User: Fold these one by one.
Assistant:
Number 1:
Amino acid sequence: MKILVCITHVPDTTSKIAFTDGNTKFDSNGVQYIIGPYDDYALARAVELKEQTGGTITVLNVGTVETEPTLRKALAIGADDAIRVNVAPADSFFVAAQIAEVAKAESFDLILMGRESIDFNGGMVHGMVGELLGIPSISPVMKLDVEGSKVKMTREIEGGKELLEAELPLVAGCQEPIAEWKIPNMRGIMSARTKPLKVVEPSAVDGLTVTENYELPPAKGQVKMIDKDNIGELVRLLKEEAKVI
Amino acid sequence: MAILVFAETADKKIKKSSLEAVSYAAAMGGDVVAVVLGQVEGGELEKIGTSGGTKVLHADDAKLNEGVIQAYASVLAEAAGKAGADTVVLAKSSLGDAVAARLSVKMGAGLVSNVVALPQGNKVKRSIYTGKAFANVELKSGKKIIAIKKNAVPLKTDGGAAAVEKFTPSLSDADFKAKITSQEKAKGKVLLPEADIVVSGGRGLKGPENWGMVEELADALGAATGCSKPVSDMEWRPHHEHVGQTGVKVSPSLYIAIGISGAIQHLAGVNSSKYIVVINKDPEAPFFKAADYGVAADAFEVVPKLTEAIKALNN
C-alpha cells in the first residue's frame, strides 16, 4: 500500500502569537516549529499500517526550504521518502491543488493528514484534495483500519461518533486517538539524513483568498475574585453584570 | 443574487448554529434560501423564517438523514445552482468543514472558515491560531463560501415565514462511496459545540466518579459538559468532550472551568468564550489570568453550593 501523509509546519502549541510589518506577517522570532499535532497522529497511524501490511510512506509538505527540518523529523519517525513542493502556502485551495497534483502523478492508495492545521484551523484541505481527485474524503477520523481494499473508520460527530466503510483510495483528516504519537529514536534520526527528500516546483494555481493583515484580540480585563463563602455573589454577577444566566 | 445557507440538522432538529448562519445571511441582505437535508420534526422548518430566511429547499429523503460528506456537497452544489446563489453561508462544524471544502472545489468558490463578523465587501474577518488572533481575508473569487463561528452574530428571532419547497436532488451511487454503518450519540444532551453554557472539569476532580457534581451543575444551567485533555486521555470522559487546541473549540456565552489549571492549549480552545468562571483551589493557577470571575477554593466545597444557588434562582 502506498500511503501519502501531508504534514504542516506550524508554530509549537505554546508559542506566543505576534505579528510584524504592520501586522501583515507572523512574527517567527523565537518560535519553535513542529509537525502539526493532528498531522503527527496521521503519520503515526501510517507507520502502524506499514508495520501491519507493508508498503511505503511518502510525506509531503507545501512550503519553502525552512520546512525541511520538519520533513526530516517525519522521515525519522518512519516515512520512507519526502516531497517538498517548493512554494510558500497561499490559501487552502492552493495547498490542496499542489497536493492533488503530486497525488495524481503517484497514485497513492491512502492519503492521510491532520483534521486541520493549528495555525489557520481551516480544516478544508482534506476535503478539497478528495474532491480534486474524485475520491471520498472523511474527517475527523479517530480510528482507521485497512482490510484489503476496504477501509473501516470511526469519525467523530458532535456528541458521539459514527462508523464508516469505504474502498481505497481515499483521503482522511485524522485526529486523536487514531494512534500513539511516535517519537523519533536515534536510529530513525540517523537514517532520516540519507532518506530521499525530493523538491518539486509548484503547479500554476491561483489561490481563491488572500490574507491582508492580522489582529490580536483585545487584552483581557482583571479577574474578579469571589469568596468561597459568598457564592451568591458569583450568581448575582453572572445574572446582573454578565447577563449570561 | 440569493444567498444559500446549509441548515445542518442533529436528531431531526435544525442546529442553533445553523439558525445563526441564516441570521448572518439575512444581515448580509437579499434572498436567503436555506437547504435542509433529510427528514426533520414538525415545526423545525418554520425556524428558518423566524431567523430571517425567505425560502427553504427541503430534500426530505431518508438517505440524507445522516451526514454523508460527498452526497451533501453534491446536493448543496445543485441547490446553489437552483437558487441562483453565488454565496453559501454555513456554520462551522466537523461536518460543515468537510462538506464546505468539497463544495468549494465544485463551485470554484473561495472558502473562509471560522468567520467572526459580517463581511465588509469582499473582506471577512476570521479567527486563527485557535482564537489567539484574527486574519482579515479577501475573497477573490466570484463565488464565495463563508463558514461562521458560533456566536459570531446574534440570532434573529423576528423574521417572517419562509416558503418551503420540496427539493429532489439528483443523487448517484458515487455520492455514497463512503457508507455510514452505525452511529453512537449521547441522547438528550446539550451538544458541546452548540452549547451556550459549558461546564468543564479537569484533573482537580480527582476521578470519573466525581463527575456527577459537574453534571448536576450543567443540568441546573442547561449547559453541556466538557473536560480537559488529561481527563479524556485518562478516559475519565469521552474524547468528544475534550475542549482545547486539539479538541473541541467552544465559544459559549459562559464557560465554567472546575479544577482545570489552564494550560495554554486548553485556553486556546475556550478563549473566545464571552465570560469565563474559574474554580480552582490553587490561587496561582494560570487560568485565573484568563477568567472574568474566579473562586480560589476546593471545587468539592464550591460546586455544590453553586449548583444550589443556581437551582434557587431557577425556582
Number 2:
Amino acid sequence: MDFQLTDDQRALRAGMRELLERRFPRTRLRAVVDGDAERGAELDRALWRELGAAGLFALRVPESAGGVGLGLPEAVLAFEEAGRALLPGPLVATELAAGLSGLWAAVGAVPGSSQAGLSGLAAGAVQGETVVTALDVEGARAPVEHLVSADAVLALGPVAVELIPAAEVACAAEPMRSVDPATPLHRTGPIRTRRDQAGPGRSGIAARLRREAALLTAAQQLGSASRTVELAVDHAKRRTQFGRPIGAFQAVQHLCAQMLVRAESSRSVVYAAAVTEDPGDIAAAKLLADEAAVHNARDCLQVHGGMGFTWEADVHLHLKRAWVRAGQWQCAAAAEEELAAGLVSTVERCL
Amino acid sequence: MDLAFTEDEEGFRHRLRAWLADVLPTLPDRPHPADWPGRRAYDCGWQRMLHDAGYAGLHWPEDAGGQGATPTQHLIFLEETERAGAPYVGAGFVGLLHAGPTIAAEGTPEQRARWLPPILRGDEVWCQGFSEPDAGSDLASLRTRAVRDGDTYVVSGSKIWTSHAEIADWCELLVRTAPVNADTPKHRGITWLALPMDAPGVTVRSLRTLAGTAEFAEVFLDEVRVPVGHRVGEENDGWRVTMVTLSFERGTAFVGEVVACRRVLEALARTAKANGRWDDAVLRRRLGRLAAECAALWRLTQWNVSEAQRTGGVPGVGGSVFKLRFSQVRQELYEAAAEVLGPDALDAGQEWVADRLSSLSYTIAAGTSQIQRNIVAERILGLPKGR
C-alpha cells in the first residue's frame, strides 16, 4: 500500500494548475462573471479547444484512440485543479462523452443502440472541439448547464445512455436565471431516453457513468474547498483589526482550522474513491466534498467580513458553483441512502 | 496512489489472522473494568502471548527488541486485531506507545537493556506523569520540582489524569529542573525521569470519571528520591525528548478505534432494522452520513501511514486533522446510537452506554480540540501566533 501521489501524478497536477493560471487567470474568470448577461452565458470555445489540446478530456481515453491512456485518479487530480480555478463549462459531461466510444467497446453494445450515431455526436469531444453537457433523467433532475453553448447532451436514463443533439433538448427547455453567473442553467421538460428499460440498475453503463460523474464533480468540489481555505488564510494574515492581523484571533483561527479539516478529510476519500471506484467510496466522496465546498465557501465569506458580501470578492463565486455542483449527480440524500444501504448489506467491505 | 497491499503485506496479514484465530479462543474472560489487578493480569498476559509469537513491539526498531515492521504492517496488525476482537493494548499503552519508544530513541544502552525487555514481555507497566492540576493543555507550565542532591533528584509536586497509575511499576515523569525566568523559557527547564511507583513518598489517589469508573488517578510526590541514572536525555532537555516521543505515533494511534466505529455503525444499522427505527429516513440518512465520515477517517489513516512510510515518520498535516475529525465523529456516532436505541439509552447497564460516556473524553484527552485547532491554524496554515 502506498496511498500517496506518484511523482507523475504530482507533475500532472502541477501542470494543470500552471496551465489554468496561464489560460484561465482570475481576470478571465471576472470577465465571464462581470460581462454582459448575453456574453456571460456563452462558453469560450477557444479556451475549450485549448483545454482539449492540453489533454483534459483525453486523460482516460486509451492511447490507441488518441488519448493519454491514464486512469480515474489522474482525471480526478485534473478536475480538482479545474474546481480550484472555478473553470466554467460542462467539463464532466464532455470528459465522459470523450471516453464513451471506448467504454462502449469495453462493455459491449446495448441491444438496439446505434453506436455510430453516438460516436458521431461525441466525435471531437476528446480534442475539445465538441461541447457536451449532461442530463440525468433519473432522480432529482438537476437543471442542464451550458445548454445553449453545447453541441450534444449526454442523457442518462435508468439504464440506457444516449447522446442527443443539444438543439433538440433546447427546444423543450426553459432558461433559468442561474444563481451562478458563470453557469447558465436550463430546466428541461419531460425527456425519456429512447431505449430505456425499467428500473434503476447498479451495473451497466448508465450506473457507471453516474458514479464517474459524481466522483469528477466531487473532485472539483475538493479543489474549490482547498482554494477557499487559501483565500481565507491569506485574508486573515493581511487584514488588520484592533492593531493585529485578524488571523491572530482564536475565533478566526478556529474557523480556518475547521476549513482545513473539512478539505483534507474529503481529499482522502475522494482520492481513495478514484483508486477503488467503489460505489460506497464514491458516495462518501461526493457527500463530503459537497459539504466541504459549500461550508468552506461560507466560512471563507465569514472570514472576509463585509468584503466577503461584495460582488468583487470571488468568495460568492465559489459558494454559488458549489451549490450548483452539490445538486448535480449524486446529491446528499441519494449519497446518504446509498451509504446507509451499504451498512446493512451482507457484503464484506474493506473496512 | 496504490491501495493494494504487496505480497509480503498480504502474507503478514494471513499469518496474523491464522494466529489470532488459534489463540483468541484460549483467552480467559475479560475482567470487570473496576478490577485493576485483574485488568493488569489480563492485558499483560495478552502482551506476553504477542511477545512469544513475535508480535511484541511490532513497529519498534529491531535494535530495541522490536520487529522493525513498516507502518503499513503496523496498520494491518491494528486492523486485524481489532476486527478479530483481540484485547486492546490496555495497560501496556504508555510503555509500548510512549515511554518505550522514548527510551529506545533517547536512552543509554543500560537504560534500554533495563526497561525495554520488560515492556515488550508484559512484565512491567508504565504510566504517564505529564499533566498537572495547573498544567494540562499548557504542559510547559508544569511545576513539579526536582532538586539535585548528589546522585539523586528530590522530586515534589503532583500529577493528575494519570491513567493506569494504580497498577503501574514506572512513571514517565516530566519535572522542572530550572526555574522559569526571563532567560529560561518555561519549556527549557524540563527533565524526563523514570520514576519507580513504589518509591517512598509516592501516593496514588484514584479519580472517578463521569462514567463512574476509576480510569485515572492523581499522583502526589513528596520528596521522592529518583537516581540521576533514571534520567533519559540531558537535564533541562525533557521537552525535546517528549516531542520526539510524540512523533512516534505516525498516524496509527487510533486505528483500532476507527475500525471499531465502523463496526458500531453496522451494529446500529442492524438494531435499527430490528426495532423499526430504520424506517425513519432522517435517522437512516444520519447513519449513512456517519458511514461517509468513517470511510474518510479510514482513508485519512491510510494516507497518513503511507506518508509516514515515505518520510520515515515525520508527521505531516494529517495528525491534527485526523484527531479533530475523529474525536468529533466518535461523539456523533454515540449521539446517533442513542436515537436508535431510544429508552435503552438511559440504561447504564447497557455496555454501549459506557462507550457513549467515554467518547466524551476524546475531544479533551491527548490535546483538546481547541488546542488542536490552534496547532492547525498556527503550525500548518501559518496564521500569526494568537492568544
Number 3:
Amino acid sequence: MATSAHTIAAPARATTAAGSTTLRRKQGFQHGGWFVAPFLLLFAVFVIWPLLRGVYLSFTDANITGEGASFVGLDNYREALNDPLVWDSLGHSAYFTLLVVPCITVLAFLLAMLAHHIERGKWLWRLCFFAPFLLPSTVAANLWQWLFNPGTGMIDHVFGLQTPWLTDKSYAMLAIVITTLWWTVGFSFLLYLAALQGIPDHLYEAARLDGANAWHRMVHITLPMLRNITGLVIALQVLASLQIFDQAVVMMDFLPGPEGSTRTFVQYTLEEGFTSYRVGYASAISVIFFVIIAAVALARMWLLRNREESAR
Amino acid sequence: MTTKAWTPSQILLTLLGTAVSVVFLAPFAWGLFTSLKSETEAVEVPAHWLPEDWTGQAWKALFDSGNITNWFVNSLVVSVCVTSVVLLVSALAGYGFARTEFRGKNVLMGVVMAGLMISPAVLGVPLFTTVQQMGMVDTYWGMILPQCAPAAMVYILYKFFQGIPRELEEAAFIDGAGRWRVFFTIVLPLSRPSLAAVGIFTFIASWNNFLWPYMVTNNPDLMTMPNGIATVMNSYGIQWAQLMAGGLMAGLPLIIVFVFFQRQIVAGVAHTGLAGQ
C-alpha cells in the first residue's frame, strides 16, 4: 500500500538544511498506509465482502449451504415487493421507530435537565438513569417480560390491572416500546448531560443581568445550544430503532408476537435465512432494508447541509 | 468543601429526582426480590413485592446447572478480545486517516464512512454465510472478529486526532522520531480520555451483543451470557426466579464497571474544569 510515496522522500536528503527540515517534517505525515491497513483488512472481510456477497446472493436462489445456487435475476425482489410479510414487518419496525424516537428524545432531555440542576449527589442520578442501559438487551427484555406477566407481574400489581400485555395484538408493541424506553433512554440522557455541561455559564449570567427568567433562559439559551446534540440523538435513535430485533424476539419467546404483530424487519430477514433456509431471498430483503437505512442516513445529511446553508 | 444550601427549588428538584429514580430502579428491585422467592412463590397470584419465604434456591440452582460459569467466561473472553482489537485497529486507522497521507485516502475514508450505515442487523445473513465459509461458525474467532471493524469508533478517534495540534508531532519529527514512535509516545498518551470512552462503549456493546452470537453459535458451551440466558434458560420452560437471578448476574459486571469508571470520568471533568479557569 502507498509504496510510491517512498520514492519521493529519498532525494530530499541531498538538499539544503532548510529544505530538508520542511521535507522531513512532511515526511512524518507521509505514507501512512500501514496505520489503516489492519482496520481495512477486517472491514473488507467482515463488512464490504459480506455486503457485496449479499447483493450477489440476492440474485440467486441460494440456500443455507450456498451450494448449487442458480441465478434467478430479479425474481427475489419481485417476490419481496409482493410479499405482505415484507410490508407488515417493515410497518412494525417503522411504527416502533415513530413511537420510540420522540419519547426518548423528550425523556432524555428532561432527565438530563433534572440531573444537571440537582446540586447534590450528581453521580447517583447519573447512575440511576443510566443503569438500565448497562443491561444486555435480552436481560432487559426478560425482566420486562416478567414485569408485564399478567397477574404475577409488577405492572399489573402496581396499577391494579389485568392487561394481556404480551398476548394481545393491541398491547404487544406498546409493551416493547415501554421496555425500550426504560432500557435505552440512559444513553441519550448521557449525551444531553454532556452537552448541558458544555454550555458556558456566562451566557446564563448575562441573561440573568438582562432580567431573563428561567423560562426565557431555557428557550433562548439552553434549547438553541442543544440543537446539534438533539439532531445527533434523533439520528442515532432512528437508525437504531429501525433495526430493532432483540427486545421484540425475546419478549415474545422468539415468536412473531400475537397475530404476527411484533414481527420486525430484521426478524423476518432472519426467519427467511435461518428458518426457511432461503438465503437468496433473505439477502434480497436485506438489500431492500439497507437501501432504506441508507436513504434515511442520506436524508439526514442532506437536511443538515440545507440547514447549514440557510443559517448563513 | 462547602455544603450547598437546601433552597426550596433544590428540595423540590431532589424530591422529583428521587421519585424518577424509584421508577427507574423498581424493575431491578422486582427482579431481585423475585430471584429470592421460590419458583412457586414467584408465580403466586396476587403478586407481592417481598418474598414471604426468603430463599437462595434460584441462585443455587443457577450455579448447579453449570452453564452460567461457562457463559460468563465466554462473555469475558469475547468482550476483552473485541475491546483490545477494536482499540488497537481503530486508533491506528483514526490516526492514519487524520494525520498521514497515502494514495486513495479520501476514497477509503468515504467507504469507511458509508460503513457507519451498515450493521450486523443489515448484514446478518450474508455475514453468516461468509463466516461459515471461513469455517468459523461455533468458534471464538467467529464471535470475535466480525465485531472488530466498527467504523463509528474509527470516526470518533479520527475526529479527536484531528484536534491534536500538529506542532506537537512536528517537533518530535524534527528531533528525529519516526512516525510510529510519535504515535505511541506522544499521540496515544494524549488520547487517553477518548480511548477510554471508545473502550468502555465497545466493551458494553460487546458484552451485551445478542444478535451476532445468536447467529454464529449453536453450542450451549460457547454461548455468551445474554445469549445463553435468552435461548437456553427460556427453552426449559421459564423458571422466573432462576431467570431473574441469571439476568442480574449478567447485568452486574457492567454496572460495577460503570460505577468504577464514572469516578474517573467525573475526576476528568473536574480536572479539565480546573485547567480552564
